[in-house]
């Protein structure tokens, strides 16, 4: 079978799915162990039998709604490649707004930072990678996720500067005695209201960990604790930055303001939605 024919088979197999063309290109490039750019010039080449088996298996998994990132076991974030598996949320492009804004605030100078709910480690590792010399203390309550995150820190050469801690929200950082010591805290907490989980697309609902999505009855549960815990961890002039879901910027700003945060600003993502909220620590 020619590569171009494999592409056509993919289109009919994934008919009706969002991003089918992109997913097929990614699956074919993965099966052939080449880049997407190289693939485009190879349409007339024969697909070796082993690559065809791999491609068909990947296509079947994708047809069953498994996200392509889990099939490939990788996803790019902040121009870095991250290992992912079903224990971690697939890093989203919107979350790059959180990292960019945090980097702007550190002015890329070494800083002591915290992250709640690190998952694949995408945020903590990117912060350590692009803010050379900074140290990030990152938590997650899922030990499998922390194993993935540790491998990602090693992969990008920042393992000595990212400390992963297992535990509930920011409690491990408080237990480590980091009160008043952090320059910044970031979080992309679970923020989908429990009742809305069933409305998520099947590729999210059936495949991504509920632990990474479920933000409690109103979706805002984590922000309430985060505000209090971050206020205790931040030093003078410190800041807290959080990602928020659709329609949550206002309520989250109010929650953080009631925990004493000031100078609140929200930043929009490329689609124009308010995506992150930052505030300065109570004096
Ligand atoms: C939305 S995901 C964010 C993952 C990653 N930071 C990112 O932006 O791609 C939320 C993460 O919070 C973790 N989490 C959920 N409940 C938690 C808790 N009580 N304490 C610590 N982490 C928690 C989940 O395991 C998940 O990895």
Detailed description of the structure:
With about 280 residues, the protein is of the alpha/beta class. It folds into two domains: about 5-65, Helicase, Ruva Protein, domain 3 (Orthogonal Bundle); about 85-280, Vaccinia Virus protein VP39 (Rossmann fold). Helices cover about 40% and strands about 20% of the residues. The protein has helices spanning about 5-15, 20-30, 35-40, 50-65, 70, 95-105, 120-130, 145-155, 170-175, 200-205, 220-235, 250-260, and strands spanning about 75, 80-85, 110-115, 135-140, 160-165, 180-185, 235-245, 260-270, 275-280. The strands form two sheets. Strands 5-4-3-6-7-9-8 form a seven-stranded mixed β-sheet, with helices on both faces. It has a two-stranded antiparallel ribbon with strand order 1-2. Strand 8 (about 260-270) and strand 9 form a beta hairpin. Helix 1 crosses helix 2. The termini are far apart. The model has no long low-confidence stretch (mean pLDDT about 95). S-adenosylmethionine binds near residues 95, 116, 142 and 212.
CATH homolog superfamily of the largest domain: Vaccinia Virus protein VP39
Helix content range? 40-55%
Output the CATH topology of the largest domain: Rossmann fold
Number of helices: 12
Q: What percentage of amino acids are in beta strands?
A: 15-25%
Specify the oligomeric state: single chain
Count of separate structural domains: 2
Termini distance?
67 Å
């Amino acid at each position: 079978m020619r590569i171009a024919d494999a592409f056509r088979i993919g289109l009919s197999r994934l008919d009706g799915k969002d991003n089918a063309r992109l997913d097929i290109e990614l699956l074919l490039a993965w099966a052939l162990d080449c880049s997407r750019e190289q693939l485009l010039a190879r349409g007339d080449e024969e697909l070796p039998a082993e690559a065809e088996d791999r491609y068909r298996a990947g296509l079947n998994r994708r047809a069953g709604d498994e996200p392509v990132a889990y099939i490939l076991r990788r996803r790019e974030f902040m121009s870095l490649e991250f290992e992912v598996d079903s224990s971690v949320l697939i890093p989203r492009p919107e979350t790059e707004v959180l990292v960019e804004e945090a980097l702007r605030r550190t002015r890329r100078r070494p800083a002591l930072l915290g992250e709640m709910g690190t998952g694949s480690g995408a945020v903590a590792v990117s912060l350590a990678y692009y803010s050379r010399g900074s140290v990030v203390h990152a938590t997650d309550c899922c030990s499998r996720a922390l194993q993935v995150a540790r491998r990602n820190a090693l992969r990008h050469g920042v393992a000595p500067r990212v400390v992963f801690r297992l535990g509930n929200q920011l409690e491990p950082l408080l237990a480590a005695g980091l009160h008043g010591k952090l320059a910044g805290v970031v979080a992309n907490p679970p923020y989908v209201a429990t009742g809305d989980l069933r409305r998520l697309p099947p590729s999210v609902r059936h495949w991504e960990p509920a632990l990474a999505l479920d933000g409690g009855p109103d979706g805002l549960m984590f922000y309430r604790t985060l505000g209090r815990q971050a206020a205790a961890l931040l030093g003078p002039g410190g800041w807290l930055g959080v990602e928020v879901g659709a329609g949550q910027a206002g309520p989250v700003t109010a929650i953080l303001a009631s925990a004493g945060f000031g100078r609140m600003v929200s930043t929009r993502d490329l689609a124009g939605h308010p995506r992150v909220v930052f505030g300065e620590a109570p004096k």
